[in-house]
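step 3/5: co-fold with nicotinamide-adenine-dinucleotide
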Amino acid sequence: MKTENMEYEVYNYINGKREKNTGDSEFTVYNPAFGKRIATVYDTGNDEVDNTVDFAYSAFLKWSKIPITDRIKFLFRLENLMRENADELAKMVTIEHGKTFKESQGEVMRAIENVEAACSSTYNIMGRNSKNIAGGIDEELFRVPMGVFAAIAPFNFPIMVAFWFIPYAVGLGNTIIVKPSEKTPLTLQKTVDLFEQAGFPPGVISIVNGSVNTVNAILNNKKISGVSFVGSTGAARYIVSTAAANHKRAQAGASAKNYELVMPDADLDKVVPHLISSFYGNAGERCLAGSALVTLPENHKKLVEKFKMEAEKLKLGYGLDDKVSLGPLIRSEHKQRVLGYIDSGVSEGANLTLDGRKFSAGKYSAGYFLGPSIFDNADPDMKIVREEIFGPVASVVEAKNIDDAIEIINKSQYGNASTIFTKSGEYAEKYIEGVQAGNIGVNIGVAAPIAFYPFAGYKDSFFGDLHAQGGPDHVMFYTDSKVVIKRW
Ligand code: NAD
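step 4/5: write tokens
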């Protein structure tokens, strides 16, 4: 049987065992390129989540005692196994999410990169000390693991986001429970074999499936020390405030609206391919996707023409077909939502110069496909410019000059990423200093930090204090301070 038509099993992974659960609510997993059901997910209820946490806490008591130099060896093995199985993992990402195989391979590499980065935990966990800080007194600070952490992931990166958290949490001596998106739970199921082959003891890494009820069971469990969330702003706000009320650490990467400014000195032949991959890669379902394109009067017309010409070449279809460059949206309802934004742009008076609704996915007509759209002459106050669309729709706004552009960009409620294309260091520095976004690109279409740097969203794109999605903050998030004051 062809993989795209297979039915997949979804199980929880608790205390080293694969367990089927049958909660009250159920959710269908689709292959979005075919509009076909491929699996069913059930909510994991309170009791099962509590049991999972108990096992994970018992595992923590032993795991945290293993010297960090030995714990890291599990991560080295995992990294190698993920590399060996990278294409298998990527294939699963395409099947359940729809992105092209190349995009899925990129996602898997980003996951692996985080395992590599977490291998430096041996160094990162080092504390501080002061000799003779007061007469005959020495003082030391250790970073110590805390217990059980949880991670709640979105649908759009079925493997990468979970790996923003798993390797750091366990490398530093904690155990972790992951709840994948109920829309894309299958790739993480494949990693279970790799956790086992790497030799992780039962309970160190667990998976519970489900949706809101399962998240609430996690938030209400008293033994969980901290929660990392990635998803939409509404859910992020709720999760961080509930976690804090329940005495947990929390961090949440949230929704986005990313602006990309092209200055007149930029070379359009180089810029436009970056714009195409930023605005339409992952079908626009990327929290770092370009969504509003800001031009200046000197380059507006030429840029829109060239952008449109290249966007028209995108080929819709199943991501495992190597000629395809634009995959489907995740669900039919999500496609309807994006179509609603196209209607709204038209009724607000923007000029729909490229209409994605007219594209065909050929033999994949049952899939949730939508071609690339471009709205020209969009106004900064229109819904299509202000709100996250999460689909292949670009809105072009013409600014008067760079200062005006920065002012337009900073009106956004979000601050995940923003990019400037220019050859001028002066413009770039002005942009870096002036734009209120956590990840700034200079001639980079998708300003995605490498694992050694934090993913630094601002405003309604991030909730919490520490940006522990990679980067140095993970040590602060996943460990606590223990201070020892000594006199002999
Ligand atoms: P979502 O908020 O619908 O779901 C994310 C996770 O939260 C899922 O596991 C889901 O089961 C759970 N969830 C959803 N609603 C909940 C609620 N009310 N209470 C408790 N749990 C809830 O997000 P999504 O549609 O899966 O992902 C897309 C969103 O994620 C976009 O807004 C995108 O910008 C954002 N995102 C942000 C980043 C980032 O780093 N800032 C990265 C990727 C995606």
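step 5/5: annotate
The first strand starts at residue 12 and ends at 14.
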